Amino acid sequence: MSTSEIVTAQERIWYAILLLPSFIIYTTSMVGETNRAPFDLPEAEGELVGGFHTEYSSLKFALFFLAEYVNMVTVSALATTLFLGGWRAPFPFSMIPGANEGWLPLVWFFGKVLAFIFIFIWLRGTLPRLRYDQFMDFGWKVLIPVALGWVFVVGAARVAISEDLISNTRILTWLAAPVAALLLISLILEYRKSKKETVETEATAPSFPVPPMSAARTNRTNRPEVETKRGSDG
């Protein structure tokens, strides 16, 4: 579990390519773990004015947001180490002699971390907030089954490699392709299902925020009689 050994193992190919389903699952989970859109339901800044942040101000308020962004940087750095080769130069810069020497590894590492932070901000600006039932359906019906199936596939491949049944370790890339395709299909089906539910809800919903009430009209034919009666009483 040495992070330096994990980075060294990605010298030829990143785990983001070799273990594509793991990369997709981790990226989705880290967005939910940091309570960022579209999984920011615990905070819901638009509805709750920042949630529990309303109880604080000044330095304490700033520290809460600082902790949120530190959490984003932490999970981004972990994803960079596990899946994007860590401090190693990306292709095609890796072909340049000396690309992984001196202070350049810091540039590659922080550049990859900034790319993940850009993804966080991009998702927040483009995707709407999911309902809690949609979040749970996505986790229990898509992510967890795909993750368990992928663990079984990777374990079987590792056993086959250790027993010399498979000579080329890049067979994992071919195993990742169908699992990634299943994950993509699941996402598309889940999106179409949620979109269909939204359309059906809008179709059955009234056109006004409050259902229109039938206007009560006064009987104008009796008004002259009322005025005549008032005149006679006077």
TrEMBL record:
Its main location: membrane. It holds the Pfam family NADHdh. Residues 198-234 are annotated as: Disordered. Keywords: Membrane, Transmembrane, Transmembrane helix. GO terms for molecular function: NADH dehydrogenase activity. Residues 222-234 have a biased composition (Basic and acidic residues). The keyword DNA repair does not apply. The chain crosses the membrane at residues 12-31, 61-86, 106-126, 138-159, 171-189. One of its GO terms (biological process) is aerobic respiration. It is a multi-pass membrane protein. PROSITE patterns: COMPLEX1_ND1_2 (PS00668). GO terms for cellular component: membrane. The keyword Membrane applies. This is Unannotated protein.
